[in-house]
C-alpha cells in the first residue's frame, strides 16, 4: 500500500517548511530510516527519514519549494514505476465554519498521530483550555487542548484512527450546532481503525513489504546504553523481546516502534527482564507564577546573558548538586547541549556529550501534561498552566533515588518561580 510522505512540523507554531535538498530521486529504492530530504524553518534544519521501505514516486515538490505542514510531497510505493493516484473520494458534506483543531506535531520526524481518546463529544460545550483529545506517537502520549471556546461542531476522526500532522480533525464553533457531526477516516487512506483500536501501541508494518534483518555491522558507540523511544521499550517489554539483540546485529540506534518488527524477525531471543512500574518515577510540581521570563529579560538587558536556553540549563543543573553537569535543552524543535559548571551562569558553554539531564520546554505549546516514561537521562518538562507552570520530572529508579528526585524537582521549581532569590 503506498505511503504518503508529508511535510513534517519542526515546532508547534510552524505552518510550512522549505525543502533544502532531496537525498533520493524519483524511482530510487529507499529503506526505512534512509534520509529522504532536508527541511528548513526559521528555527531549525533537519533531515527527514523514510518511514517505510519501497520506491520513491510522485515527488511533488523540488528543492527550494516552501510547502505547508501536512501537505503530501511524495509517495513511497511497492515498485519503481510511478503509480496512478487513487480515485478521488466523493465530496463530503460541508463542514461548519469555525476554529479548526489540527493534529499537532509532537516530534520533528512525526508525520501522523494516533487518536487514543476523545474527551468531548459532538455538541459538547468546550473551553479553550479543556482537554479535547489524547494523541500518541512513537515517542509520547499527550493531552491536547481545544484552543478555542465554543461548541464541538464536528469530530473528523474516531478514537483508534491515525491522522496526518496538520490535518483538521475537529471544528469548534462559537454557536451551538444544530446538527453536530461525527466522521470516520476509515474510508480514506488511513490504517485499519479496528486494528489500531484493538492495539494502539502495536507496531505497524505497511502493506505486505517483508521485514528484513539488517546486515551486520559495527554497533554505534553509545557508552553501553541502548537508545530507544519509550514506545519501543514498552513494546519490547510487552512481547518479551530483548533490544540488546538489535545492538548485537549492528542495527543502528536509536530504536523506534518499527524496529520491534525487525527484532521479532531475528528469531528467539532472551526474554527481557521485567521492569516494575514502580521503578519509573514521575513527579510534578505546580507553580502559580512563571518567573523565568522576567529573569531572562533581566539577564539579557542587565548582564548580557542572551541565551535563554543556557539559563534554563543552569537553573536545572543546580538541582543535581554536582560540580559539573551536561544538560540538553529542547525547545520548539531545537536541541542544544550545555556544559554547566558549579559557578556563575556566564560560565555555561555549549557541549557535545551525552546529557546528564534533559529539559523539554513546552511552555509555548498547547500540551497540558506529559507521561513519556523513563529515558536515557532524567527528563524535566515545562508545560503551561494558566499564568504559571507545571514541571514534570520523569526518570528511572537507577538514575535518581527518591531523595535525589525530590531534591531536583523542588530546587528547579523554586528557581523557575523566583530565579533571582536563588541566585543572590
Describe, in plain words, how this protein is organized in 3D.
With 424 residues, this protein is of the alpha+beta class. The protein is 17% helix and 30% strand. It contains eight helices and 25 strands. Strands 18-25-24-22-19-20-21 form a seven-stranded mixed beta sheet, with helices on one face. Strands 9, 11, 14, 16 and 17 form a five-stranded mixed beta sheet that branches.
Report a brief summary of the structure.
The chain is an alpha+beta fold.
Secondary structure layout plus pairing:
Elements (H helix, E strand, L loop, with lengths): L2 E4 L9 E7 L6 E2 L4 E6 L4 E5 L4 E4 L8 E3 L3 E6 L21 E4 L9 E7 L6 E2 L4 E6 L4 E5 L4 E6 L6 E3 L3 E6 L7 E2 L10 H6 L31 H9 L5 H5 L10 H7 L14 E8 L4 H12 L4 H10 L6 E8 L2 E8 L7 E2 L6 E5 L5 E4 L8 E7 L2 E9 L5 H16 L1 H5 L1
Parallel strand pairs: 14-17, 19-22, 22-24
Antiparallel strand pairs: 1-8, 2-4, 2-7, 3-6, 4-5, 6-8, 9-16, 10-12, 10-15, 11-14, 12-13, 13-23, 14-16, 18-25, 19-20, 20-21, 24-25
CATH topology of the largest domain: Chloramphenicol Acetyltransferase
Broad shape:
globular
- CATH-level-4 superfamily name of the largest domain: Chloramphenicol acetyltransferase-like domain
Low-confidence stretches: 187-223, 269-278
Estimated share of beta-strand residues:
25-35%
Level-1 CATH class name of the largest domain: Alpha Beta
Integer count of domains: 4
Instruction: Return the structural class.
Output: alpha+beta
C-alpha termini separation: 62 Å
Rg on CA atoms, Å: 23 Å
Tally of strands: 25
Number of helices: 8
Main β-sheet description: 7 strands, mixed
Amino acid at each position: 500500500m503506498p505511503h504518503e510522505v508529508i511535510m513534517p512540523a519542526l515546532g508547534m507554531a510552524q505552518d510550512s517548511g522549505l525543502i533544502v535538498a532531496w537525498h533520493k530521486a524519483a524511482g530510487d529504492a529507499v529503506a526505512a530510516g534512509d534520509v529522504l530530504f532536508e527541511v528548513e524553518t526559521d528555527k531549525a534544519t533537519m533531515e527527514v527519514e523514510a518511514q517505510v521501505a519501497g520506491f520513491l514516486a510522485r515527488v511533488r515538490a523540488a528543492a527550494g519549494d516552501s510547502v505547508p505542514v501536512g501537505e503530501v510531497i511524495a509517495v513511497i510505493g511497492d515498485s519503481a514505476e510511478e503509480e496512478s493516484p487513487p480515485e478521488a473520494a466523493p465530496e463530503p458534506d460541508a463542514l461548519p465554519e469555525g476554529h479548526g483543531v489540527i493534529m499537532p506535531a509532537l516530534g520533528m520526524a512525526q508525520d501522523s498521530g494516533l487518536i487514543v481518546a476523545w474527551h468531548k463529544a459532538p455538541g459538547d460545550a468546550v473551553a479553550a483550555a479543556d482537554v479535547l483529545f489524547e494523541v500518541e506517537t512513537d515517542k509520547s502520549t499527550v493531552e491536547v487542548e481545544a484552543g478555542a471556546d465554543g461548541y464541538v461542531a464536528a469530530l473528523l476522526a474516531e478514537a483508534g484512527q491515525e491522522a496526518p500532522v496538520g490535518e483538521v480533525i475537529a471544528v469548534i464553533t462559537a454557536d451551538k450546532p444544530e446538527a453536530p457531526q461525527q466522521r470516520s477516516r476509515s474510508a480514506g487512506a488511513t490504517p485499519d481503525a479496528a486494528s489500531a483500536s484493538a492495539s494502539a501501541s502495536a507496531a505497524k508494518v505497511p502493506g505486505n513489504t517483508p521485514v528484513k534483518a539488517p546486515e551486520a555491522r559495527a554497533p554505534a558507540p553509545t557508552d553501553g546504553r541502548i537508545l530507544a523511544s519509550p514506545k519501543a521499550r514498552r513494546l519490547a517489554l510487552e512481547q518479551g523481546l530483548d533490544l540488546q539483540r538489535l545492538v548485537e546485529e549492528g542495527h543502528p540506534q536509536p530504536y523506534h516502534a518499527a524496529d520491534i518488527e525487525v527484532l521479532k524477525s531475528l528469531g528467539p531471543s532472551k526474554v527481557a527482564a521485567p521492569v516494575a512500574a514502580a521503578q519509573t518515577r514521575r513527579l510534578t510540581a505546580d507553580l502559580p507564577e512563571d518567573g523565568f521570563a522576567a529573569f531572562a529579560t533581566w539577564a539579557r538587558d542587565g548582564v548580557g546573558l542572551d541565551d535563554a536556553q543556557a539559563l534554563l540549563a543552569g537553573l536545572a543543573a543546580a538541582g543535581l548538586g554536582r560540580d559539573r553537569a551536561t544538560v540538553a535543552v529542547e525547545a520548539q524543535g531545537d536541541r542544544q547541549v550545555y556544559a554547566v559548571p558549579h559557578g556563575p551562569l556566564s560560565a555555561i558553554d555549549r557541549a557535545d556529550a551525552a546529557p546528564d539531564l534533559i529539559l523539554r520546554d513546552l511552555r509555548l505549546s498547547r500540551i497540558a501534561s506529559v507521561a513519556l516514561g523513563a529515558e536515557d537521562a532524567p527528563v524535566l518538562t515545562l508545560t503551561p498552566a494558566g499564568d504559571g507552570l507545571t514541571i514534570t520530572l520523569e526518570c528511572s529508579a537507577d538514575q535518581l533515588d527518591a531523595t535525589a528526585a525530590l531534591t531536583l524537582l523542588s530546587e528547579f521549581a523554586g528557581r523557575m518561580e523566583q530565579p533571582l532569590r536563588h541566585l543572590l
